[in-house]
């Protein structure tokens, strides 16, 4: 999937987290930022990706050590991040937005022909029975649908709060 599709899925994750936890404005902005970054983070192993271009050296290092779509797209990576966040006592709403942001990336990549090494270091490629080409029509439509969903959830919670406070 393209970076756009991943980012729009991160946006939806952020919007749903805000809606669920009913956070204040500052926390909400942080939640959305974290969700979008997390939804792009696994592609740090890809030097040409949105996030890889921004952190070139780290990206090269990860790519050299693990290769593309392996460690950073695995349950092991996500578990290590959960443990780390738990140790630094990350509030629940940040934890949820980061974890679901990461999961959304891996799930979307499982919808592509290349799949992911979900069980890394076990070298097994995991993908859904139905896959779609990156940058194809389904990928682009998905980005649009996810963004629309995110905007809907955001506005819905905004208007709900507005009327509750009247
Ligand atoms: Zn990826």
UniProtKB/TrEMBL annotation:
The keyword Cytoplasm does not apply. This is Membrane protein. It comes from the Bacteria. It holds the Pfam family YdjM. The chain crosses the membrane at residues 25-45, 66-87, 93-111, 131-155. InterPro entries: YdjM-like. The gene is ydjM. Keywords: Hydrolase, Membrane, Transmembrane, Transmembrane helix. GO terms for molecular function: hydrolase activity.
